[in-house]
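Retro notes, structure queue

What went well: the backlog is down to a handful. What didn't: a couple of records were mislabeled last round, so from now on we paste the full input next to the output in the thread. Example, using Zn-dependent M28 family amino/carboxypeptidase from Tahibacter aquaticus:
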Amino acid sequence: MRHTLIVASLALSLAACSDTPPPPPAAAAPAATPAPAAAPAAPVINDSSGISAAGFGARLKKLASDEFEGREPGTLGERLTTAYIKDEFERIGLKPGNNGSWFQSVPMVEINLQNTDVSLDVAVGGSSEKFAYKTDMVVGNLSAKPEVALKDSELVFVGYGVNAPEQQWNDYAGLDVKGKTVVVLINDPGFGSGDAELFKGRAMTYYGRWTYKFEEAARQGAAGALIVHETEGAGYGWDVIENSWSGPQFDLPKSEDPAPRLDLAGWITKASAERLFGKAGLDFAALRKSADVRGFKPQALPAKLSATLKSAIKSGASDNVVGMIAGSGHPDEAIVYSAHWDHLGKDTTRSGDQIFNGAVDNATGVAGLIEIAEAFAKQNPPPQRSVIFTAVTLEESGLLGSRYYATHPPIAMNKTVANINMDALYLTPMARNISVVGFGQSDMDAYIKEAATAQGRVITPGESPEKGFFFRSDHFNFARKGVPALYAKGGADLFVGGEAAGKAAFDDYGKNRYHQVADEYRDDLPLDGAVADLQALYAVGKKLAAESTWPQWAADSEFKAIRDTSLAPEAGKASSAK
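Corresponding output:
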């Protein structure tokens, strides 16, 4: 993901984003069904939606083609992409979904680092250590100033950089970091310690996300923040960081988000952190371990950092594309399907292939969005509730497009029944399990379980909760507004090949394709798994759009209070999904 701020406005104890770890799933949530040791052949799904491999594949191939130049916001690639989506929406019979317009203009600030030969110069141990851009670190300017200069900024190791009152955990306690640069670990103490009693154990909370690290450091008054990259804690390798920070970075303007920003934000490799700490006479491994323990004390480094960042700043806008089918009975209530259209564009400094086509991430989601929209457009009788289809921008820059949509919705959030999000559908043969990210959070589990059962499949909790997928896609911005959100797709337990084949495919994508130029369309890619997932997601929305009931958050979900407050005038609504 490219960097920007996600200021999480959950109405909970933490002002920026409360990620109070929920207790175990509520009893009302359906239990995940364990997969048997021997899986049968993939079932033949009796589906009448019209969602097909032919339609999905054609749209996927188009969106992932070089023609769209990697779909970077603010470029020709954006104009071609959004025009294609709009044309498809119009052709299949949708109506403009944003108060009579197909487009919702999202204001943005584009920040282009000009001196890409920048280095971090650190005075430490009686000498000067240089850390090189991309090789040792990546940095950017989040404050949108044409030039920022840090001169002899003191370095402080603040562990995980977490201030979580509900956890009685504050890595900044008693510390003044104004004007200083903090060095921060990725993820959170529960992950680092392996202690199930800390935070959510190995499952990442929002406190573990890189966006939170920068937000909290800025709130504390720091001038800069450097996150130490570790592949396991981040969920991706250094190449993903490097590629994601190589082009322009985007943010919302202060008129949309007045929160403080850092002058310097970035990542350093673990090897660079070890070198820095070693030169300072400190043991990085020992300090890292000490950060896992309650009562951790920040450690000032006998080191000072200097760096100058020169950036070209441009104000502009990027478009969400919004289509809808008005409800025949309750047009003021909506189910929202979402998928982000943006990707990383192209890197002209590369030799060979320069285009980040983003076939899986997220041409699959947008192609699926259009497929589901077409199924609804052909539905007879039409849905009782309105169904909105939004292809959002700037997801790779911190979920900015969906964040803007959630703040400026064409149908109010307290009239938005549910969100169904599609991001990076796996292009594998059909999986026996549908993996639910954020399993146990809401009644949406029951809806997807019903759809999965009809296909001869099961639902399971999302894979790799330590990677924080719940906070990494656009459904999160709907959840922050209290809207029950579903982010589900085929899991690793393939009908053909089982978990070994599925995990091998996931690992291959994560290591060799995710946020790399190799994420491309091929004619031999298996589409049946993604098509089955789309058919299930359509079934969920079809049921919701025909009902008068409202899915609810589980009693122990951190999002329940927000929804209850927003629905207060509509008290009495409850889910009938069992």
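Agreed that this is the format going forward. Reviewer comment attached to the example: The radius of gyration is 23 Å.
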